[in-house]
Amino acid sequence: MSEKVARSEELFRHAVELMPGGVNSPVRAFRAVGLTPRFIARGEGAYLYDVDGNRYLDYVLSWGPLIAGHAHPHVVRAVREVLERGTSFGAPTEEEVLLAEEIVRRVPSVEMVRMVNSGTEATMSAVRLARAATGRRRIVKFVGCYHGHADPFLVQAGSGVATLSLPDSPGVPGETAGLTLTAPFNDLAAVEELFRRFGEEIAAVIVEPVAGNMGVVPPVPGFLEGLRRLTREAGALLIFDEVMTGFRVHAASAQGLYGVEPDLTTMGKVIGGGLPVGAYGGRRELLELVAPAGPVYQAGTLSGNPLAMAAGRATLELLDAEAYAYLDRLSARLAEAYREVFARHGVPICVQRVGSMLTPFLAECPVRNFEDARRQDLALFRHLFREMLAEGIYLPASAFEAHFLSLAHTEDDVERTREALERALPRALAQRKREADGSASS
Ligand SMILES: *Cc1c(COP(=O)(O)O)cnc(C)c1O
């Protein structure tokens, strides 16, 4: 099977002249897989349609938000209804109250919430609030966890032991990056060591309660509980970055699934139903420090935008117990399909899944942290991605991302994916071998 890509190629050539790398967010450029990105014309349910008329079964779902699938009629109706009354007022609306109420009702640790426009804004504001509330400067993050692109989070550690970090990106001052301490995910002893050395200076520990941005890595038993205990003992705050996991893995988010309550929670993705939204929330006495209730400044011209609020609320309305059970069942089948096909070909795979997010790591199990995730067969990933795309299956174009499923995906879709995998894997293996032989002989 081969797709036409002429129109995508033409648009991309033009886009590269106009925008850095031709895109507005790096992973869209398909660099890790060496292809021209597909320009999308529309989405419907579990499917994407590109500008050349190709149809793809979508496991990216805009990188997580579209848990109801593309253009779900209930979401479209809700957005259209508010759209016709005007798009933004710079004044309070009922839609904000309704979404806030819904979030607070579902997540017990969140008593109050502030809406922003992205996950990045949510995490950077939550850290400001944590610093203000504790009067401390340092934060702890985990290697391979992504918290948006604000300066304090663009920090990676050296491998192994926790270290003081250098910035990951030019433009981030060393002074800022130096305030971010890092530890390997799932390594409580490393966090204990940081608290021994810097305890009095640590404002907060921020963590993806299920890591999703190094591929899906669940917390080992006791890890989140340990972070809760250590932060509490040291007078630091615990921030769960649930931008990806919020309302994705459980009705009350990852904190509901694991029964650990953070002080602050950041959200995004699903709560915007595909429109730009982020939020941060937590205990009342903390949120009341935020302006204008308190002195911590944070604002936004389009924050709480009625279109986004309506899309988010309509999406949450679809997420009842039955919806989560369905997503769980379907995702388990997809995980099983990966394991089955790879086992038949004797190729190692480690499929890790929490609810409807999963990553088939091309590595031996277990993957407990970023270092483990990096041991993947990235050449095989690149070929498999290409072959699956040719089969009409749109996977995340990076081995360090999650597959997402939606309410619009069906058992037939998963079966189709299994069949595509069955055809694509041998071709990908053959290509990787040819590539390896070629480089050995040259
Ligand atoms: C996507 C993501 C962010 C950043 O959200 P944006 O809306 O892209 O700014 C932050 N944290 C986590 C855990 C995410 O998955």
From TrEMBL:
Biochemical pathway: Porphyrin-containing compound metabolism; protoporphyrin-IX biosynthesis; 5-aminolevulinate from L-glutamyl-tRNA(Glu): step 2/2
Known EC number: 5.4.3.8
N6-(pyridoxal phosphate)lysine PTM sites in chain numbering: K269
GO biological process: protoporphyrinogen IX biosynthetic process
Uppermost EC category: isomerase
Assigned GO CC terms: cytoplasm
Alphabetized Pfam families for the sequence: Aminotran_3
Record's subcellular location: Cytoplasm
Record keywords, A-Z: Cytoplasm, Isomerase, Porphyrin biosynthesis, Pyridoxal phosphate
Quaternary data: Homodimer.
PANTHER family per UniProt: GLUTAMATE-1-SEMIALDEHYDE 2,1-AMINOMUTASE (PTHR43713), GLUTAMATE-1-SEMIALDEHYDE 2,1-AMINOMUTASE 1, CHLOROPLASTIC-RELATED (PTHR43713:SF3)
Record family assignment: Belongs to the class-III pyridoxal-phosphate-dependent aminotransferase family. HemL subfamily.
Name of the protein in question: Glutamate-1-semialdehyde 2,1-aminomutase
Organism: Brockia lithotrophica
Gene from which this protein is expressed: hemL
